[in-house]
Amino acid sequence: MKGYFITGTDTGVGKTVVTACLATLFKSRGGNVGVMKPIETGVDPECNSAANSDAKFLMEVAGVQDADVCSYRLKSPASPYQAARMEGKELDPEKILISFRALQSKHSMMLVEGIGGLMVPITQRYYVADLALQIGLPLIIVSRVQIGTLNHTLLTINAARQHGLKVEGVILNPSDEGELDAIEAEQGSLIEKFSDTPILGICPYIDDVSCEGIKQNLGRFEQSLKGKLV
Fold first, then answer.
1. Considering the entire predicted model, what is its pTM?
2. What is the DSSP code string of the chain?
3. Which one in 10, 165, 192, 204 has a CA-CA gap of 20 to 30 Å to 154?
4. Catalytic residue among 37, 89, 95, 193, which?
5. Percent of the chain clearing pLDDT 90 (strictly above)
6. Residue 122 — pLDDT band, cuts 50, 70, 90?
7. Given this structure, which CATH class describes domain 2-224?
8. Is 193 designated active site?
């Protein structure tokens, strides 16, 4: 089974954009790509669209209408465990795994976008890292490029290894379209040096985060990968 579990060094690091770029790339190569965002928080379960739902945006990008893409939507903008507790709900990881297996049976490649970072709790004793391990896909870690990313990325890689997860590599995601300064430009090579983990590429800054905006930047994204993801 081909596919990747896309995690990040933090919330808001750009996992959805990178996942959308990967889905568009593999789809352009003729792949039958399925997507999953197991849990969304800060999203109204009764009123959501591709504009405010990562799951629905990924479905739009991948061109799928699967029913199992998002197992849980929680309105509170908090970690899944905290949001569920605030709303008087309990999250069942097995429900997510059942949905994943159903999607896996329909597609030759799966892209699963995690929730925040690896140590985000889903239940009191079950973290995103545990979910990634049970899903069984190698990790792609999305990291920022500015100073501080070395610490955050090394912590994420160490957490992944402690949980027995295979790390495919890191994709850097800039927060703006300006040129990288000397310090920022060296972050990738430092991550490789201190973690023995490859930098797979750099996601171009995409101002228009839409299906069309992703497609317009696909060439730049694929060029940065240099054939590392096939």
1. 0.96
2. -EEEEEEESSTTSSHHHHHHHHHHHHHHTT--EEEE--EEESS-TTS--TTT-HHHHHHHHHT---S-S-SEEESSSS-HHHHHHHTT----HHHHHHHHHHHHTT-SEEEEE-SSSTT-EEETTEEHHHHHHHHTPPEEEEE--STTHHHHHHHHHHHHHHTT--EEEEEE--SSSSPP-HHHHTHHHHHHHHH---EEEEPPP-SS-SHHHHHHTHHHHHHHHTT---
3. 204
4. 37
5. 91
6. very high
7. alpha beta
8. no
